[in-house]
Design goal:
The complex is a heterodimer of chains A (254) and B (559). With 254 residues, chain A is an alpha/beta fold. Helix content of chain A is 36%, strand content 24%. Chain A has a single domain, classed as Rossmann fold (3-Layer(aba) Sandwich). The chains are: A alpha/beta (254), B mainly alpha (559). The structure holds adenosine-5'-diphosphate and magnesium ion (MG). Chain B: It is a multi-pass membrane protein.
């Protein structure tokens, strides 16, 4: 089902302290698509993802996320927008001392008014939903285990479950498998892919392993030196070609 | 019905399984501590008659006193220099003596001690007892034995420091790798030889660090020893307050604050330097690790039996000699002539024989209870206020950076003033009693807690907070879910540590008339009732040790 784009970047530029990090990046992501964002470290992948949910604001060009412009949102509108966009971090962003269930429950904070501390401070209905999401990532039986005693792959799946509790319309994942071993990487990406397919959620996932990107994504977008150098369906791409384009793009830059 | 068995992969929609986390010992301990803190605070407020009205009146009286102290009247530069010098010399002499005694004591108290069986527990008792009884309590006793002046002060500093230095050094000795000691024993070395040639060199850096740290604490402590006549700048403060010369008292307090602030700057600088030094050494070690075969073991031209007077060795020896000279000068400045020391002997015998049997009484236990309540109530209230201040100062929680800098500076100044000085001021403003002591401890606990809390807040993992911001959580929600749970262990640990420190202070605040057992202690010595003194010392040691143990156990179970 393809409708209005979930995400639209037009000629976006962004720099820090005078250095240009992103330069004229345009990108449309339709609903339900799994986009792999590849590129070497320092290419600007994290910066791009952070522009999408308003953690950074663009210097030039416009970002439209789920029909909103993060740059012109009020604080509460921005919060509401972020609640609709899931974000998965390389280092998980879990509170290690707390149980998996409580970490998942935190995904619902935007729908609640008061600060919460402890599993029992969340409504029963949310606890039931949180357990369901833990079940979807295969960790329902670990619900009361402290997160710092879970393996890296399990922690990342808890983080995915936390994102699911937001009922996101778009999931951004910033190198979600960069700190995981190969088997756990495949499991986490398959989980993301399955959820994307089942719920029709768009996913933009930055990766630096070309093979994983080709195996998982519908579409591959490559960044290099802050510029978009490739944007093609994954189906027609081979790893060799992707590497080749990488290199020629690098040669043109240099 | 909530069951405690873990859910399986049964269809989650039908039966979600348990939704209530099982009770954990950790949660129970945390809840217990919270309830205890609230109860103790409430009990303390009731005991000292704290109410909004009494607090407002107290602030009023304090403001009036501060107006009477303005402008501060500084003593002449020569006097100031002499008072500061005497304070520093007391601290140096006391710390040095303590270090000398601590080394054998620590080796005796360490786990792998090989001497007579009874020696190790005896050493442990000495360590616990000297650490539990505050410097000022020893100072009162030693002024009676050795007479007024810095000798009593330095000995008090020394005896109390022995406990801490020996304890930390014991830990270092126990952590040292046992294999070299085994090797030396296998060569037929005696136990003292083993300690001196294999363990001491390895714990020496730790010892230096501990002694410097303790010297810092002791300089602050020496600044108030004069209140009981044990020398240093506190003598002038006591004289000024006694003669109601508040302008002069304010001047002396200013000198103390400046001294402590300079010390703070110095210790920060030293810490920075040692950290950098260590980094440089590490990177050098890393670089040279690969090419050991290429570099000769000895620099060219040095004979194998020549130790080599290179720059590092010259500096080290010069430093050691300078340290020794300063220590000897400090000892000499105490004026320990043989006549005076032998004159103290009968006093010492009278005190020691008079101490047996210790005379406990209801009054005494009530006074100890008052000290305990003052300390715990002040620590709890201080932890609450300190938490607010810490949230304002820590870089990751402050709402506004410039505010953070202002509060930080203010806290350093507030911490620079010793507790006893606050107590003296509040007694002068509000009259005798535990209310003054409580306020003094509250202020110092607040400043101390704020520093500890801010430091540990800044060390937390920032990512959960960021993740929750990206979830769309409000500021307070992101704090409560992302920062607070990480902070709980250090909040509890540091809170208990503040309570521990407040307790040690509260047992001596009575010297200023600010409530608690300190007053009884001073009085019992003045009236030669040493059996009461002994009972008080024992009671203090027991209470301090009990609180310290409780804090340690709680910390271990919470982490
Ligand atoms: N907050 C920031 N402040 C300054 N420079 C930044 C910041 N975030 C990223 N950069 C710089 O932007 C460039 C791209 O970073 P990033 O988007 O993290 O790349 P990637 O995620 O592809 O590795 C890097 O050179 C990095 O140093
Ligand atoms: Mg990155």
């Amino acid at each position: 089902m393809i409708g209005d784009p979930v995400l639209r970047l037009s000629e976006v530029g962004k720099g820090f302290h005078g250095t240009t990090v992103l330069d004229g990046v345009s990108l449309d992501v339709p609903q339900g698509q799994f986009v792999a964002l590849v590129g070497p470290s320092g290419a600007g992948k994290s910066t791009l993802l952070r522009l999408v949910n308003g953690m950074h604001l663009p210097d030039s060009g416009t970002v439209r996320t789920l029909g909103e412009n993060p740059a012109s949102c009020s604080r509460s509108r921005l919060r509401a927008l972020r609640a609709r966009v899931g974000f998965v971090f390389q280092q998980f962003g879990l509170v290690g001392r707390l149980s998996a269930l409580e970490n998942v429950l935190m995904g619902s904070l935007a729908t609640l008014r008061l600060p919460r501390y402890g599993v029992m401070s969340y409504p029963r209905a949310l606890r039931i939903r949180a357990v369901e999401h833990l079940d979807r990532v295969g960790l329902a039986d670990r619900r009361f285990q402290r997160c710092d005693t879970l393996s890296g792959g399990q922690q990342q799946r808890v983080a995915v479950a936390r994102t699911l509790l937001q009922s996101p319309e778009l999931i951004l994942a910033d190198e979600p498998v960069a700190s995981l071993d190969p088997a756990a990487s495949v499991l986490v990406l398959e989980t993301l892919k399955r959820i994307s397919a089942e719920d029709g959620i768009s996913v933009v996932c930055s990766l630096h392993q070309i093979e994983l990107a080709l195996a998982t994504a519908d579409r591959v977008v490559a960044l290099r030196g802050g510029r978009l150098v490739l944007d093609e369906p994954a189906a027609g791409l081979t790893a060799e070609r992707l590497r080749e384009i990488y290199d020629t793009a690098g040669a043109r830059d240099g | 019905m909530v069951s405690t068995t873990p859910a399986t992969h049964a269809p989650a929609a039908a039966d979600p399984g348990p939704l209530r986390p099982p009770w954990s010992a950790r949660a129970l301990i945390a809840a217990g501590l919270l309830v205890a803190a609230v109860a103790v605070t409430w009990l303390t407020f009731w005991w000292i008659g704290l109410s909004p009205a009494s607090l407002a009146a107290g602030l009023d009286d304090t403001a009036r006193l501060l107006r009477r102290m303005w402008p501060p009247d500084l003593p002449g530069a020569g006097d100031v220099a002499w008072m500061i010098a005497e304070t520093l010399l007391i601290a140096v002499a006391g710390t040095g003596l303590a270090a000398l005694v601590s080394v054998p004591l620590a080796f005796t108290a360490a786990r792998d001690h090989r001497g007579p069986r009874w020696l190790r527990p005896a050493a442990r008792v000495v360590v616990v007892l000297t650490r539990a009884v505050p410097t000022l309590a020893f100072a009162i006793l030693f002024v009676r034995i050795f007479g007024l002046g810095p000798l009593a002060g330095a000995l008090a500093v020394a005896v109390h420091s022995v406990g801490m230095i020996a304890k930390l050094l014991t830990d270092a000795v126990e952590e040292a790798d046992p294999v070299p000691a085994e090797a030396a024993r296998a060569c037929g070395a005696g136990e003292v030889q083993v300690a001196v040639s294999t363990v001491l060199p390895r714990v020496f850096p730790a010892l230096t660090g501990i002694v410097l740290y303790r010297l810092d604490i002791n300089i602050r402590a020496s600044a108030v020893l004069g209140v009981v006549g044990a020398g240093g700048i506190g003598v002038a403060l006591q004289t000024a307050l006694g003669s109601l010369n508040y302008h002069r008292a304010a001047g002396i307090i200013c000198v103390i604050v400046v001294l402590v602030l300079l010390l703070e700057l110095l210790s920060v600088a030293v810490r920075h330097r040692t950290v950098r030094h260590r980094r440089v050494r590490h990177s050098r070690a890393g670089r040279s690790a690969g090419d050991t075969t290429g570099t000769p073991a000895l620099p060219a031209g040095r004979a194998p039996h020549d130790v080599g007077w290179d720059r590092g060795r010259v500096l080290r020896v010069a430093g050691a000699v300078a340290t020794g000279v300063v220590f000897l000068v400090s000892l000499w400045s105490l004026n320990p002539d043989p006549g005076r020391l032998s004159g103290a002997w009968p006093n010492l015998r009278a005190v020691l024989t008079g101490m047996w049997p210790p005379a406990f009484s209801g009054d005494l236990l009530m006074a100890v209870l008052e000290s305990l309540l003052m300390a715990l109530g002040a620590a709890a209230a201080g932890a609450a206020c300190g938490l607010v201040l810490a949230l304002l100062t820590a870089v990751n929680t402050t709402p506004w950076r410039p505010l953070s800098a202002v509060v930080r500076v203010l806290l350093v100044v507030v911490r620079g003033i010793p507790d006893l000085v606050y107590a003296l001021l509040f007694v002068a403003a509000l009259g005798l009693g535990p209310f003054a002591g409580f306020l003094a401890l509250w202020i110092s606990s607040t400043a101390l807690a704020a520093k500890f809390f801010a430091d540990s807040l800044e060390q937390l993992d920032p990512l959960p907070h960021e993740a929750l911001t990206s979830v769309g959580a409000r500021r307070w929600q992101a704090f409560a879910a992302g920062i607070w749970p990480q902070f709980v262990p250090s909040f509890t640990g540091n809170g208990l540590f503040v309570a521990d420190l407040a307790l040690r202070e509260s047992v001596v605040l009575g010297i200023a008339g600010a409530g608690g057992v300190g007053y009884l202690m001073q009085e019992s010595i003045a009236t030669l009732r040493y059996d009461t003194t002994a009972a008080i010392v024992i009671a203090i040691a027991v209470v301090v040790y009990a609180i310290e143990t409780l804090a340690r156990v709680a910390r271990r179970h919470l982490l």
